[in-house]
Design a protein that fits this description.
heterodimer, A: alpha+beta, twelve-stranded mixed β-sheet, 24 helices, B: alpha/beta, Rossmann fold, four-stranded antiparallel β-sheet, 8 helices, 10 strands
Chain lengths: ~800, ~250
């Protein structure tokens, strides 16, 4: 008998049971994929670096001095072990296809024979690359998108007097230089191809390069222990590699937020649907009680039913979570090996958790069965003892038409169910808005102060020029003068300067730190913004970021020992500031601090301030002209400079994530609108039939139902617009905080996007979902009043 | 009452297909209702009484035949025209006293008037008309009440008010007293009779001979056919009318 009632219930309430099943599938899919992604993101770089076997420190040399460095490293006590990876370096002009430049990467690329590799490199499926067929080359980093080749496509590499033809083998992931921020892509080839090139004497002379991966006994002091390294090398700790991935971590962090939102949405919807369906059962429960069934029997009946639905839904959701989770993480997986080793276990655990949560919801919701009495079967679920007023509005006093009034009145009469929808729509909208604000901020000049750079008219970021300083080919001042002269020769007069990056060692309270110090002789320290204290006024005053100050346990007014250029002096910390350079491990000298020209080996880019303070249009035309003068496309305005520093494709990646979130959100909202509207129709069938019997046209009833969703979406839009700024700060500030901007960022919120475009998308999607579902009401006839 | 037909039904057939089996609920039904008449449809359960009411009122589609309401053939009207006709010219009363759950009693009553453009008036005038109708039917005290807060009799009278709000030419009532006790039933029928006396045509379905005795004519339906018709002289006392009707029903095999 018990199972016959259950079977009949499943058959008769097919629609609501299917709706509940779909929500269970959604919840499991979101929960399993999201928890997996959260684990993956939290593992993040550590997982990738561990898999790639990256070391504590690395040294790059673009000269034939590998043996010299090897000798040096062997003499440093703190060096535990090191690995040497010999390869070739070349400019992007060396890569051609049919006589044309293959890709404009504007920087130095490397050619690594696979057998020389001392790190693990991965293919697109995250399998370790062990062999490369002869005549083939894998691309890493920005070269993949820049070259845009299909598998097997041929291209040429010209080094010295040798030209070899290679075929594209696919993308490879390089933990060390793979991020776009480094912009040093590698070609991973077979050793036979490498040997062909190295056989050329010119190549041996001009293109040999080595990378050393160094592990220390004390990784914290390794950087300062290696400070006496021979010149013409780039020697840094792993933190700079971490910094180079920061934008992917931002994207991964955003995915984490998306995942948390998806879990929230799915459980809220599930809780609502279960309570909604149980409340709809009052008639049956009343009848069963009238027939003499015990509370426990009635409750057991529903628990068995929901358990069955939960198990089936959780299993389907578990299967769907795998492709869905992969789709979520795809936006960053081209650059990083992201993952965890327990995907299946986590998914199964999440599915079991969803079933338990459903049963908990059901247990709580079915508590009401105790209170329901046989009278509920006849009194529409009301006990008759405590009636509550349902409608807050009065048709007689309202200015609204019948359809509009009914829509508003329904919302005010059942605030709980519409509040749930409003909350879900608001969360979805805020998610999109936060991502849009992040993407817009990352591509705007608002981040310039966080890059320790003053605003200029134009910026040259051509890595060939920057590399000249790094390799000692030219001095910093020499390049600035060259640029000024070249500009003057072409009728453009302006001052060229640069934010130089210096690498002193700081010590205070027995703690050492090696922040990057910013220095620009053409600007004043007082031109920059500080969060505490005052700008350095004298040469013996410095400003530090809060992170460095905390690391050294010093504050404003404290003294630190600073070692630079072989000299150690006491300096006073006069101010604290925030920066995103080297994840906030930054300091600033006063402009009068003396820096020998040869000590400037790294710059952010060359800033140009035109003498005649031209307007924006003139600047734009001059930038175009300068691109011809200097033969490079890497000349930008402020927004472009920020994007170049961050990584040109980062905005595209974040926009990709934004688009993906818009699509996911749209799908969620459509699903919620469709399923909610379908459950409303099922619940309100008597009223729909009655309205039709009274003479309401089908389109009026459809309009009333659709309008309810439009109102909910509009309310959600208003709430989202009001909360956009604080929520963006709340969610995204921690991500920028990882990058060093611990006091938050001035977000670039575009009113048209936030106030019009995204709300319009959400309203349109909700309305479309509700409208097309509401059309089902056409099948409800006026005469159905007789069957209710 | 005059001799102008407000509802003409010719060879009306209605067939349902249930589990691939054809069920002929109405078979060539023919009858006519004149303006101002109050006609009861009686018959055993499953004879097709309610189906007849819903089909002739345009709420359900007929399978074959002709139904003319106020001279307009229902089968030729589009869904929206039928809806407008129901809104402006017809009133409906159901056994289960269906009302919109989220509206107060008065709002339920005036809802069809707000939706219709038949009577040009302001919202406050509509409200006043609704209140007048409620006053007339003695339920003005419950105008602001929730529909769950009132008795069945009061609710059915509210349904009558709602059916009257657009001044329809005809009211269709499907067992309007079926869910009421005797006192409430008498009150509801009194109101319907009053409306009929004021000129509104009424067609009602009932099982109750006492209710049917208050009408001017009774149609007896069995297995989807009108098996007989009984005219009632409303000038004689109700008890005598009821006795006469019961005798006739016995003759018809009731």
């Amino acid at each position: 008998m018990y199972f016959r009632i259950l079977k009949k219930d499943l058959k008769r309430k097919k629609t609501m049971n299917i709706i509940l099943l779909l929500f269970v599938i959604l919840a499991t899919m979101f929960a399993a994929s999201s928890v997996n992604n959260i684990t993956t993101v939290l593992n993040g770089l550590d997982y990738y670096f561990e898999k790639a076997d990256l070391s504590d420190h690395f040294i790059i040399t673009l000269a034939d001095n590998g043996d010299e460095i090897e000798d040096f490293l062997s003499g440093v006590q703190n060096v535990k072990d090191f690995r040497r990876e010999d390869q070739l370096f070349f400019n992007d002009t060396a890569l051609t296809k049919n006589g044309k430049k293959l890709a404009d990467i504007g920087s130095t690329a490397l050619l690594l024979p696979i057998d020389n590799g001392k790190l693990n490199y991965f293919d697109k499926d995250n399998e370790i690359l062990k062999k490369v067929p002869e005549g083939y080359a894998y691309f890493t980093g920005c070269l993949v998108k820049g070259a845009d080749l299909d598998y097997g496509e041929k291209f040429q590499l010209n080094l010295g007097d040798t030209e070899i033809t290679l075929k594209y083998a696919g993308l490879a992931k390089d933990a060390f230089l793979g991020s776009e921020m480094f912009n040093n892509p590698r070609l991973i080839v077979n050793n036979a191809d490498y040997d062909t090139l190295i056989a050329d004497e010119k190549v041996r002379e001009n293109n040999r390069s080595s990378i050393f991966y160094v592990n220390g006994y004390n990784s914290k002091t390794l950087e300062s222990d290696l400070s006496d390294i021979p010149t013409n090398t780039f020697s840094k700790g792993i933190s700079i590699v971490r910094t180079s991935y920061i934008m992917y971590i931002i994207v991964a962090g955003l995915l984490l937020i998306v995942s948390v939102c998806l879990i929230l949405v799915s459980f809220v919807v599930l809780r609502f649907t279960i309570s909604f369906t149980v409340n709809e059962e009052f008639r049956e429960i009343g009848v069963m009680k009238a027939l003499g069934l015990k509370n426990s029997s009635v409750r057991g009946l529903y628990l068995v039913k929901y358990f069955g639905i939960a198990v089936i839904g959780a299993f389907a959701g578990l299967l769907l979570s795998i492709p869905f989770g992969n789709a979520l993480i795809r936006s960053v997986s081209d650059y990083m090996v992201l993952g965890n080793d327990h995907t299946v276990l986590i998914s199964i655990a999440c599915s079991i958790f969803v079933v338990l949560i459903i049963m908990l919801f059901c247990w709580r919701c079915t508590r009401r069965i105790k209170k329901l009495s046989p009278i509920d079967a006849v009194r529409s679920g009301q006990t008759g003892e405590r009636f509550k007023k349902k409608g807050l509005m009065h048709l007689g006093k309202s200015k609204l038409g019948a359809t509009g009034f009914l829509a508003f009145n329904d919302i005010f009469s059942s605030p709980k169910q519409f509040c749930v929808m409003t909350a879900i729509f608001t969360v979805c909208l805020l998610l999109i808005m936060s991502l849009a604000n992040t993407a817009n901020t990352l591509s705007s000049g608002k981040l310039l102060p966080l890059m320790c750079t003053q605003e200029s008219d134009a910026y040259i970021t051509d890595t060939d020029l920057i590399a000249k300083i790094m390799t000692g080919e030219k001095t910093y001042k020499g390049i600035c003068e060259d640029i000024e002269k070249k500009l003057a020769d072409n009728g453009i007069s302006g001052k060229v300067s640069s934010e130089a990056m210096l690498f002193p060692t700081l010590e205070a309270n027995g703690i050492k730190a090696s922040p990057i110090f910013m220095y620009n002789s053409e600007t004043k320290a007082s031109d920059y913004t500080y969060s505490e204290g005052y700008a350095p006024k004298y040469a013996n005053e410095i400003a530090l970021t809060k992170q460095v100050a905390e690391k050294l346990d010093v504050g404003v007014g404290d003294k630190v020992k600073l070692t630079f250029n072989g000299k150690t002096d006491d300096y006073i910390v006069s101010a604290l500031f925030q920066s995103m350079v080297q994840m906030g491990e930054t300091g600033r000298f006063h402009e009068s601090f003396e820096v020998p020209d040869e000590f400037i080996t790294q710059v952010m880019g060359f800033q140009i301030d035109f003498d005649d303070s031209p307007d924006k249009k003139t600047i734009e035309s001059r930038i175009e002209k300068m691109k011809d003068i200097f033969g490079t496309k890497y000349i930008d305005d402020t927004d472009g400079f920020v994007m170049t520093v961050i990584g040109k494709n980062v905005k595209d990646t974040i926009n990709g994530v934004k688009l993906m979130v818009i699509i996911i959100t749209a799908i969620i909202i459509i699903l919620i609108s469709v399923l909610m509207e379908r459950s409303f129709i099922s619940k309100e069938k008597p009223e729909i039939a009655l309205m039709k019997a009274m003479g309401f046209k089908s389109r009026s009833v459809v309009a009333q139902h659709t309008l309810r969703f439009a109102i909910v979406a509009a309310v959600a839009s208003v709430i989202s617009i009001a909360l956009c700024s604080p929520v963006t700060k709340l969610c995204i500030n921690p991500i920028f905080g990882i990058m060093g901007a611990i006091n938050g960022v001035d977000y670039n919120i575009r009113p048209v996007e936030v106030c019009i475009i995204y709300p319009a998308i959400i309203i349109a999607v909700a309305v479309a979902g509700a409208y097309f579902t509401a059309l089902y009401m056409r099948s409800i006839k006026a005469s159905d009043t007789a069957d209710i | 009452m005059n001799n102008t037909a407000i509802l003409e039904v010719k060879d009306l057939c209605k067939t349902y297909i249930i589990n691939k089996r054809q069920n002929n609920v109405l078979r060539n039904v023919n009858f006519k209702i004149n303006e101002g008449e109050m006609v009861a449809v009686m018959g055993p359960s499953g004879s097709g009484k309610s189906t007849l009411l819903y089909t002739v009122s345009g709420m359900d589609k007929m399978t074959a035949g002709d139904v003319k309401f106020c001279g307009r053939e229902l089968s030729k009207l589009k869904e929206n025209d039928l809806a407008k006709m129901r809104l402006d010219d017809m009133g409906f009363i159901f056994q289960q006293m269906y009302m919109m759950k989220n509206l107060s009693v008065l709002d339920n009553i005036i809802l069809p008037a707000v939706k219709s453009d038949k009577i040009k008036e302001s919202r406050s005038e509509t409200m006043k008309r609704g209140q007048d109708l409620m006053r007339k039917l003695g339920i003005i005290d419950i105008s602001d009440n929730d529909i769950n807060e009132v008795s069945g009799g009061q609710l059915q009278r509210a349904c009558i008010c709602r059916s009257m709000i657009n001044k329809p030419r005809m009211i269709f009532a499907d067992e309007p007293t079926g869910a009421l006790n005797r006192n409430s039933s008498d009150e509801v029928m009194e109101e319907l009779t009053k409306l009929n006396n004021e000129g509104t045509t009424v067609m009602l379905v009932t099982h109750d001979a006492k209710v049917a005795a208050k009408c001017s004519r009774v149609l007896f339906i069995v297995d989807g056919n009108i098996n007989g018709e009984y005219n009632i002289n409303r000038k004689i006392p109700l008890r005598d009318r009821e006795r006469g009707l019961n005798n006739w029903l016995l003759e018809m095999g009731w």
